[in-house]
Amino acid sequence: MIMNLQSTTTLHNGVKMPRVGLGVYKMEEGNDVKDAVLSAIDIGYRSIDTASFYKNEEGVGQALQETSVSREDLFVTTKVWNDEQGYEETLAAFDRSLEKLGLEYLDLYLIHWPVPGKYKDTWRALEKLYKEGKVKAIGVSNFMEHHLEDLLKDAEVKPVVNQVELHPRLAQPELRSFCEERGIQMEAWSPLARGKYFDAPILEELAEKYEKTPAQIILRWDVQHGIITIPKSTKAHRQKENADLFDFELTADEMKQIDDLNTGERNGPHPDEFDYNG
């Protein structure tokens, strides 16, 4: 199958989601994030991932208003933050996000972290928004197997996506299998692990073989594993580079060698050790 930056995967509710998108974590509100989103869309990205916690939804929204690409061709994700969780609180948080983004609906709304004692009520709010057509798909972020099992006991709508820290050093094979068996699409945040192990010999070797960068090798590994990936960059040349993944293919043996980089090493917090009161 020939793929490109507009290639999508079909989520279990029939919604099509681009396999590669732009993450905007830590991009500053205003022109910084607006220009990054506009350049990404210009390059061909159609999926933009933000969150209320990033405090840049308004800048993302400005870019969405200014682009000539139609709303129907864009896929916009945002997330409800920990101190906004609970049933009524989440409904209010959604309205705030939608207003900041200047949109009439969202493509994907995620629970950002599994706040103990709250994420089930938060999920009920997401189900209501989904049933009312205000969001086309709902999912979770940073959920482990036990969080998902707990949520699925009472959920009327199954999450379509689980967005987690995922890269070759933290390949999460058990969580990926768990989600795959249940038709929940995996999505990687921090897919490049901030470049911390670009010097791994296998990545350098494959970069040389395919005339690519170690970052492109990692992102191609995501794509071939069927993982949606959202690398972040404010620079147009880097956005272009991150998108240049579709003119080569890693062999099964090369995929396995990259799989073997897995040590379980995280850059972000473990969901069970996160400071939910902070």
TrEMBL record:
CDD domains: AKR_AKR5G1-3. It holds the Pfam family Aldo_ket_red. Residues 31-262 form the NADP-dependent oxidoreductase domain. This is Aldo/keto reductase. It comes from Pontibacillus chungwhensis.
